[in-house]
Amino acid sequence: MINKYPLWKYLLILVVVAMGVVYALPNLYPDDPAVQLTPQRGSVQVSERHLSQVTRALDKAGIEYFGEEIENNNGIIRFKHDEDQLKAKTLIQGTLGQDFVVALNLAPTTPQWLMDLGAGPMKLGLDLRGGVHFLMEVDMKEALAQRNEVYISEMKTLLRSERLRYRRITRDEGVISIRFTNDEYLDKAKSLLRKEFVDFVQTERSEGDDLFLDLTLSEQAARDIEDYAVKQNLTTLRNRVNELGVSEPLVQRQGRNRIVIELPGVQDTAAAKRILGATANLEFRLEASSDAGVLDTEEYPFRDNEARRATLERDIIITGNSVSNAQSAFDENGRPQVNIDLDTQGGKLMNRATRNNIRRRMAVLFVEHKVKTHIVEAEGERIEKRVPFVEKHIISLATIQSALGNSFRITGLDSPSESSELALLLRAGSLAAPIYFVEERTIGPSLGKENIELGVTSVQIGMAMVVIFMLAFYRVFGLIANVALTANLVLLAALMSLMSATLTLPGIAGIVLTLGMAVDANVLIFSRIKEEMQNGASPQMAIHAGFERAFVTIFDANLTTLLVAVILFAVGTGPVKGFAVTLSLGIITSMFTAIMVTRALVNIVYGGRQVKKLSI
């Protein structure tokens, strides 16, 4: 019998639509703005006393809140408005001090039975929730310079171990120059370095009685170092964003040397910039002995007293890159410190350096890459010019009492906030190269709320116009198409929620486009049915032929659109990806509803009975 589905097919459609309703339901329960309290140390427990301390401060400040709770040793305090959430974060941090990480978050309001089924609402993008957008640029020149410094240190060690005497090793831009006094040492060094440093191109030159061996990185090696710097900075920035406790952040590469960061819900741009842009690192060096040569030592000031200075060896024992974990704490005198754990290699290097130098002093050097901005005039235009520079200060100079291993502590810090921030930076990892803010945008929560309202209105208007059009032109079949269209919208919301896809303003545009495309398929089918009836086919045969013959056209049209959407997602960034996600999912759901759901409803209304006339 034509125009009748077997029972299993009806049940399948019913189950799919029912699951769509269940997984779309959480979107009717939007998350509450909240502040999350997390202990800095695992030994500290969030208690009712801490929550009472916070709520008293909120009451005193007149900030409205509700629903405070403790979950998995995290305190959660909910707010009705984003503005109250932002005010409360600063107040709570000042109330609890540095023992807790206070982060902006979203607290779910989804009923427990839905959460048990794995259902949750769609995530909202930066343009809908508000937040900050940063475009950052990696300093490629400095990345190469830092790597060349490491190569110079390795070359010195190699030449000394082979007893090849040289006068000096210098670096000028991208060229490492080694000065020798005779041909024998130069030839041996040339052969040795060619074998150990295969990425360098060697050239010889002479100045008076001095002979020079110049080494320059090959173009491919330089590109590899630059690419590594960007990838390492990406990883580090993602770690730092995770430490900030931001929900649904975006951290991705853009072009050759730029990184885009979007932090939805964050309004404290100063704190975000300080954490993300900080290029602080540590160097551990031994204090120079009295008979050390001038070329093997460097003098640095202390951080707390610029007038006080100490002379350190140039050779670095380890850097902050060897740190596997770092936590801020207090010493026995109540002064801030950072407890550090090293990785295996770092622990070996530290142990080797300290066990042979007991009673000598070791310095902890705090290294910061900064930038000075100057306004210069060129051809009548004022141009902003960035000049990078490095500041190095000693934060600790202590006598080695015994061999150190994988764990030790750093003291000499000014405040608990400084120790907390240093611990965060060390945990997240240091940047492989300095990074600068090129662009900064802030979207307020009120603007994000307005975008949501406008987006919802656009969907409502679009759907209302489509519903009216279909009812006016196709009557009963138009009503069936509208029911299928509603199912399509529900399934699209369910899929986006299940995939944890982020909804953006362009994504809403994709939903509106999907509504039109879904009806487009029904228009093709209904027009084909009308055409078959005009050619003398019976109503049942016209319905059957309309769906069967329009299928190929619908499939081809949607397949080509889906391919374009996939390409957009693969090569696009930010807003383009948001549009591509909703468009791709919308094509899949509209194919199902326009063909399967519509056909099932038509079969229920007209199938299996004598029909002389169709309301179409």
UniProtKB/TrEMBL annotation:
<dbReference type="InterPro" id="IPR048631">
    <property type="entry name" value="SecD_1st"/>
</dbReference>
<comment type="subunit">
    <text>Forms a complex with SecF. Part of the essential Sec protein translocation apparatus which comprises SecA, SecYEG and auxiliary proteins SecDF-YajC and YidC.</text>
</comment>
<dbReference type="InterPro" id="IPR055344">
    <property type="entry name" value="SecD_SecF_C_bact"/>
</dbReference>
<dbReference type="InterPro" id="IPR027398">
    <property type="entry name" value="SecD-TM"/>
</dbReference>
<feature type="domain" description="SecDF P1 head subdomain">
    <location>
        <begin position="300"/>
        <end position="433"/>
    </location>
</feature>
<keyword id="KW-1003">Cell membrane</keyword>
<dbReference type="InterPro" id="IPR022646">
    <property type="entry name" value="SecD/SecF_CS"/>
</dbReference>
<dbReference type="InterPro" id="IPR001036">
    <property type="entry name" value="Acrflvin-R"/>
</dbReference>
<keyword id="KW-0653">Protein transport</keyword>
<feature type="transmembrane region" description="Helical">
    <location>
        <begin position="454"/>
        <end position="474"/>
    </location>
</feature>
<dbReference type="InterPro" id="IPR005791">
    <property type="entry name" value="SecD"/>
</dbReference>
<dbReference type="InterPro" id="IPR048634">
    <property type="entry name" value="SecD_SecF_C"/>
</dbReference>
<keyword id="KW-0472">Membrane</keyword>
<comment type="similarity">
    <text>Belongs to the SecD/SecF family. SecD subfamily.</text>
</comment>
<feature type="transmembrane region" description="Helical">
    <location>
        <begin position="550"/>
        <end position="571"/>
    </location>
</feature>
<dbReference type="GO" id="GO:0015450">
    <property type="term" value="F:protein-transporting ATPase activity"/>
</dbReference>
<protein>
    <recommendedName>
        <fullName>Protein translocase subunit SecD</fullName>
    </recommendedName>
</protein>
<dbReference type="Pfam" id="PF21760">
    <property type="entry name" value="SecD_1st"/>
</dbReference>
<feature type="domain" description="Protein export membrane protein SecD/SecF C-terminal">
    <location>
        <begin position="438"/>
        <end position="603"/>
    </location>
</feature>
<feature type="domain" description="SecD export protein N-terminal TM">
    <location>
        <begin position="2"/>
        <end position="104"/>
    </location>
</feature>
<feature type="transmembrane region" description="Helical">
    <location>
        <begin position="507"/>
        <end position="529"/>
    </location>
</feature>
<dbReference type="GO" id="GO:0005886">
    <property type="term" value="C:plasma membrane"/>
</dbReference>
<dbReference type="GO" id="GO:0043952">
    <property type="term" value="P:protein transport by the Sec complex"/>
</dbReference>
<dbReference type="Pfam" id="PF02355">
    <property type="entry name" value="SecD_SecF_C"/>
</dbReference>
<dbReference type="Pfam" id="PF07549">
    <property type="entry name" value="Sec_GG"/>
</dbReference>
<keyword id="KW-1133">Transmembrane helix</keyword>
<dbReference type="GO" id="GO:0065002">
    <property type="term" value="P:intracellular protein transmembrane transport"/>
</dbReference>
<dbReference type="Pfam" id="PF22599">
    <property type="entry name" value="SecDF_P1_head"/>
</dbReference>
<dbReference type="InterPro" id="IPR054384">
    <property type="entry name" value="SecDF_P1_head"/>
</dbReference>
<feature type="transmembrane region" description="Helical">
    <location>
        <begin position="479"/>
        <end position="501"/>
    </location>
</feature>
<keyword id="KW-0812">Transmembrane</keyword>
<feature type="domain" description="Protein translocase subunit SecDF P1">
    <location>
        <begin position="230"/>
        <end position="287"/>
    </location>
</feature>
<keyword id="KW-0813">Transport</keyword>
<keyword id="KW-0811">Translocation</keyword>
<dbReference type="GO" id="GO:0006605">
    <property type="term" value="P:protein targeting"/>
</dbReference>
<dbReference type="InterPro" id="IPR022813">
    <property type="entry name" value="SecD/SecF_arch_bac"/>
</dbReference>
<comment type="function">
    <text>Part of the Sec protein translocase complex. Interacts with the SecYEG preprotein conducting channel. SecDF uses the proton motive force (PMF) to complete protein translocation after the ATP-dependent function of SecA.</text>
</comment>
<feature type="transmembrane region" description="Helical">
    <location>
        <begin position="583"/>
        <end position="606"/>
    </location>
</feature>
<dbReference type="Pfam" id="PF13721">
    <property type="entry name" value="SecD-TM1"/>
</dbReference>
